[in-house]
Amino acid sequence: MKIAVLVSGGVDSSVALAELVLQGHECHAFYLKIWLEDELAYLGQCPWQEDLSYVQAVCAQLGVSLTVLSLQKEYWESVVASVIADVKAGYTPNPDILCNQRIKFGVFFSAIDSSFEKVATGHYAHLIHTQGTVVLHESPDPIKDQTYFLSQLSLDQLSRALFPLGLYTKPQVRALATAYNLPTKNRKDSQGICFLGSFKFRDFLKHHLKTLPGRLIEQETDKVVGMHEGFWFYTIGQRQGLGLGGGPWYVVAKDVEKNDVFISRNYYADEKKRNQLWVQQCRWFSGNQPQKDQLQVKLRHGVQKYRCTIKNNADGLFVTLDGNDQGIAAGQFAVFYDEGVCLGGGVMDVKD
Hints:
It is a single chain. The chain has helices at 11-22, 37-40, 48-62, 72-88, 95-111, 155-160, 170-179, 201-209, and strands at residues 2-6, 26-33, 65-70, 118-120, 126-130, 133-137, 161-162, 214-218, 223-228, 250-255, 260-264, 276-284, 294-298, 306-313, 316-321, 333-338, 341-349. It is an alpha/beta fold. The chain folds into three domains: 2-179, HUPs (Rossmann fold), CATH 3.40.50.620; 211-264, Adenine nucleotide alpha hydrolases-like domains (SH3 type barrels, Roll); 276-349, Translation factors (Elongation Factor Tu (Ef-tu), domain 3, Beta Barrel), CATH 2.40.30. It is globular and about 65 Å long. It starts with a strand and ends with a strand.
């Protein structure tokens, strides 16, 4: 096949490209330049030049043509601006999910030649084609599995996607990189939000939303126990960065209108069950809500998965977990699974 391969300069996308080349496909590599150079200049030098140097070295070794495609304007408009607006409204967004949906498998799909049959990435996810459709299945590596980040794709987007690492674990990918002697074989995995890299999200928010003094209030007593610089720096369940003694303290609620942040030292008390949430704007790969009401759900990327019961009501999809989760935050995504198959998901809401 003729395949457009998205490469980032990391070991995963490098191995994905190498695998496809060795399989005999006609590959063309694309590096998406989404770094916000002007926006992030205050934080220091953006590392995209280093990433690109690794991409160039890998492509040269594999004999693959490379195109650097700038989608900075599109990325700002469809992802970053949305993130800033959500945070300002008191939500906790997930930029990486939006990036996959709107950029890598959205704008990029429209930007490339239609002759490319597939768009391949280094995501840890497994696609199974069956009965004229495609199913998104979890990776065999539960730690690296990235189906959570792909949960908002449409079925059309998923049908054109290709994940060469779908059946590999991270150690196996590292071993392949060493076997192929790829320039990225010893490169550390990147961390953090896609457009910030190693930069701190707090610094990014401070640049755009500035600071605004507000009160830290103990939830149980309504006593003011400290001050903060803006509710947008905090998310539900947060423990670090409160700067208070006598803790540990946890963020339990935010009042956006008054700029108050409510905290508690009794976050894990037995009577404080946190096992229910609402999910809005659900997207299901099948096009319809599953008939089963007993599923599994992830509330964030990672290994943790709850068994849950789902039920429609006037406020959206009502979800009851089989355990308590101390980090249910409005604006994050709940992603549903059925025995390893990713079904889709939506945006979490929290109501009193």
